[in-house]
Amino acid sequence: MHSAVDGFSRLSCTEPLSDEKGATAAAFLARAKVWFAAHGIFHIHRVLTDNGACYRSGDFARIVGN
Question: Which end of the chain is more exposed for a tag (fewer CB within 10 A), N or C?
Answer without folding.
Answer: N
